[in-house]
Design brief:
The complex is a heterodimer of chains A (about 425) and B (about 140).
Chain A (H helix, E strand, L loop, with lengths): L7 H7 L5 H17 L4 E3 L3 E3 L7 H12 L8 E3 L16 H16 L24 E2 L2 H11 L11 H7 L1 E3 L13 E5 L4 H5 L3 H13 L4 E4 L7 H14 L6 E2 L9 H5 L3 H12 L2 E3 L1 H10 L10 E9 L1 H11 L9 E6 L1 H9 L3 H6 L3 E4 L15 E4 L2 H11 L2 E4 L2 H10 L13
Parallel strand pairs in A: 2-3, 2-4, 6-7, 6-9, 7-8, 10-11, 10-13, 11-12, 13-14
Antiparallel strand pairs in A: 1-5
Chain B lengths: L3 E4 L1 E4 L3 E7 L10 E2 L4 E2 L15 E3 L9 H11 L5 E4 L4 H14 L5 E3 L2 H6 L5 E4 L4 E4 L1
Parallel strand pairs in B: 3-6, 6-7, 7-8
Antiparallel strand pairs in B: 1-10, 2-8, 3-9, 4-5, 9-10
Helix pairs in contact in B: 1-2
The chains are: A alpha/beta (about 425), B alpha/beta (about 140).
């Protein structure tokens, strides 16, 4: 049971002394503290709001209720994707009524004083938290990245609660905020996975998809990776594992900051050592065959037809624009195939400034900002078959958009867009 | 046959009566639930295409998107939410959706955590009646 007596400010907020918005937010937070089994609340110094995604009248009414009560965020707060590309939606199939309501929801969160980052990759903006920082983040991929790759500390916050944490500056003192709950709970070992496969740019997305499915409610520790992944590969892993599963924290031995060694990943105290011993006996082996099967699951299309290549879930980074530019320079998409990149205003601006955007636009790529194809009803109905290098797009698009998807490498996506049909280099992934 | 009874841990209190819909696979409501129809739409999920609206949904825990809560809130507003959700652990996502639905619309749904053995015994199609205390009558 939660005790607020030790913290006068929380009690005052709950009693309305700070105004009606902090009172509403605190009342939800206090009820949730009981659900989490928290005995106290604690401070956070940053928040990321996933409640920005417009779904319908309820999400809008919630945002506008808070804004109309005068809600202000108490800590620096970034905003996730919205339901509409505010400046670019008219080029797509978005209905004006949807665009208007989604824009109203954006405005409501801006009125609360949050920074309009409009991205699902806030960790690649100036709002990136630091190691050990206590934060309240929504957006499954961002939660997983912040905890695992940066070593910041957030629970797996859902929409509608993230903003309550931001308004009060407080969270229940439980779960991944606390050191004792951050040790590994499940050991996954790569066995005989060749270097060439680990170096392939699909590897981390495929591994993430598989790890998400294997982890259930546990914190997975992945051992046996022999390459040094780029940040965007860890981003792809985090997003995949948080889509196929509920991974909010993972450790990669020798790679992520809380796992310099296998022992450290499980924690070096007596409890951690005991957990490692027990997990070692129940370790799950991941083989090339498992990875091939996981990759096959990400493809739900069966032919070579292709309507659109879609990149950028999570939002495309400057580094990804920079990788793409030389692959497309001097070429053009097939007239039948659309090529769409979803990204943030900030990343597009940086790509423009550094000169890598120009060859991508000349290639025929379109860029959608603020949102993505899953969060905004922007695709015209004639788009039935997609190709992507994003495991998150591959996971959600078949259900949310009723499309068929082929998963492939960035180079496969480019080549397919040029040829007008799905082409994949299967040399590394074919069965022996 | 005598009525059987199980007692769960109340996460969000409430009463509900309905037909059980049981799955042992976690579910993300975003990308997994159509709040316009109350149907499960996740094509990777064994219940894809099945209506959960108005039924008592037994699902071990939520997975995937943070937006699961917002989809559930929309479904309460639209009248397409499950009548109750039974889980194996205290799932914060399902609880939050019910709590915010109560705050916004004065409507909530019970969320009850069951012992694994009790959860495992539930069968799709059986009639359940949930009391505020967390007692669940199986007929």
């Amino acid at each position: 049971m939660l005790h607020l007596t030790d913290r006068d400010r929380d009690r005052a907020m709950l009693d309305g002394a700070h105004g009606p918005a902090p009172q509403l937010a605190m009342s939800i937070l206090v009820r949730m503290a009981d659900v989490y089994g928290a005995s106290e609340l604690m401070d956070i110094s940053q928040a990321h709001i996933d409640s920005t995604i417009y779904l319908g009248d309820a999400t809008l009414e919630f945002a506008e209720r808070l804004a109309s009560l005068g809600a202000k965020v108490a800590v620096p707060t970034s905003l996730n994707v919205s339901g509409v590309d505010e400046c670019g939606w008219k080029a797509w199939a978005v209905q004006p009524e949807w665009a208007a309501k989604a824009a109203r929801q954006m405005l409501a969160y801006e009125r609360m004083g949050a920074v309009p980052t409009w991205t699902c990759a806030p960790y690649q903006t100036h709002m990136r938290p630091v190691f050990g920082q206590q934060i309240a983040w929504g957006e499954s991929n961002a939660i997983s990245f912040a905890n695992s790759v940066i070593g910041a500390r957030t629970e797996r916050y859902p929409d509608l609660l993230d903003i309550c944490c931001a308004i009060t500056g407080r969270v229940p003192a439980v779960g991944l905020h606390l050191t004792r709950n951050r040790g590994g709970q499940l050991l996954l070992r790569l066995v005989d996975v060749p270097l060439a496969l680990q170096q392939d740019d699909q590897f981390f997305a495929v591994l993430g998809h598989l790890v998400g499915k294997l982890s259930d409610e546990n914190i997975p520790v992945i051992d046996g990776i022999v390459v040094s992944p780029a940040e965007d590969q860890l981003k792809a892993f985090a997003a995949a594992a948080a889509s196929s599963g509920r991974v909010a924290l993972f450790h990669m031995v020798g790679i992520t900051p809380e796992a310099p060694t296998l022992e450290a990943a499980f924690h070096t105290d007596a409890r951690g050592a005991a957990r490692l011993k027990s997990c070692a006996t129940t370790a799950i082996e991941i083989t090339v065959a498992d990875l091939r099967a996981a990759r096959r699951e990400l493809t739900t299309a069966d032919g070579r037809e292709l309507d659109m290549v879609i990149l950028g879930s999570p939002h495309f980074s400057l580094a990804e624009f920079s990788l793409l530019a030389p692959l497309v320079a001097g070429q053009h998409t097939h007239p039948r195939v659309k090529f769409l990149i979803t990204s943030s205003r900030l990343m597009k601006e940086r790509a423009h400034e550094t000169g890598v955007l120009k060859p991508i636009v000349s290639f025929g790529a379109q860029i959608t900002l603020d949102t993505c194809i899953l969060a905004s009803p922007m695709l015209p109905p004639e788009i039935k078959t997609l190709m992507t290098n994003s495991a998150k797009y591959a996971y959600y698009a078949p259900s949310l958009l009723n499309t068929r998807v082929t998963f492939g490498s960035l180079a496969d996506c480019v080549r397919s867009a040029i040829e007008g049909r799905v082409v994949r280099d299967e040399s590394l992934w074919q069965s022996a | 046959m005598a009525e059987r009874m199980i007692t769960g841990r109340v996460i969000v209190a409430g009463e509900a009566v309905g037909e059980a819909l049981v799955t042992h696979d976690a579910l993300s409501f975003w990308g997994g639930y159509d709040f316009h129809t109350g149907e499960i739409i996740d094509k990777h999920h064994p219940l894809a295409g099945v209506r959960a609206g108005g039924r008592i949904l037994a699902v071990p825990f939520s997975k995937g998107s943070s937006t699961t809560t917002a989809v559930l809130l929309e479904s309460v507003r639209a009248g397409t939410a499950p009548a109750a959700i039974l889980t194996t652990g205290a799932d914060a996502f399902f609880a939050l959706a019910s709590i915010v639905a109560d705050v916004m619309y004065g409507k909530s749904f019970p969320v009850i955590a069951l012992e694994p053995a009790d959860f495992a015994a539930l069968q799709t199609g059986e009639q359940l009646r949930i009391e505020r205390s967390g007692v669940i009558h199986r007929n």
